[in-house]
Design brief:
Elements (H helix, E strand, L loop, with lengths): L20 H6 L3 E2 L15 E2 L10 H11 L3 H14 L4 H13 L3 H13 L5 H17 L3 H17 L7 H36 L24
Antiparallel strand pairs: 1-2
Helix pairs in contact: 2-3, 3-4, 4-5, 5-6, 6-7, 7-8
Length: about 230
Amino acid sequence: MRARSLGLLSLLLAAPLVVTLASAQSTTGSVAPVASAAGSASSAPAISRGNTGPGPYSPKLQKGNAAYVARDFQGAIAAYREAIQEDAKDPLGYYLLGEAQLAAGNIAEAEASWQTGLRSVGSAENVQAKLLFVMADLRERQGKWADAKKAWDEYAQFLSTHPGAKGYAATATERNKAIDTHNDLETKYAAVKQRIEQRLKETTAPPPDTIPAPTTPAGKTPAAGKKK
């Protein structure tokens, strides 16, 4: 499967992975999301957070972030699971858990975590936007092009109806165009492949079976049938 296209997730996930409590207090309830394995952007928006649950900078999330940076994805997964046990309704934990699971190559588990996050997202619009984003990207990874287009449309629609959510609607348009191009090339390739296969069959097929006509030696005529 292709790598995450054009560092898509990096457009959303940008700030340093390990943060301090002081910086958390200075943001008055917002937290910059974890950077993805695809890279990071310097000006990604922060996630709007409430004041309930373990908080965006809980020790367990910080532990998971540190493990993620060190590429200890199993350690990150364990830490994020512990954070979820403290607050199973916090969608941020599921989002980060899915990122670690994806980095570890567990695509099915990442999808399950993100789906759970979407079910528990509540009013956390920025987290929901990110979950919709990674789900659309995941559909591309899986080669489910129709589902991917639908997911990108859902992401763009969500941003248009939730102006407070931070996201990148232009990315949805770009990805849908890329998928259309892929599908068009795939259709054309299929037609070309069919023609090539047909030509090969024609050039390599054995000649049809023929029965040679009887021959008569030179200077002789066929003998007449005997009369009874």
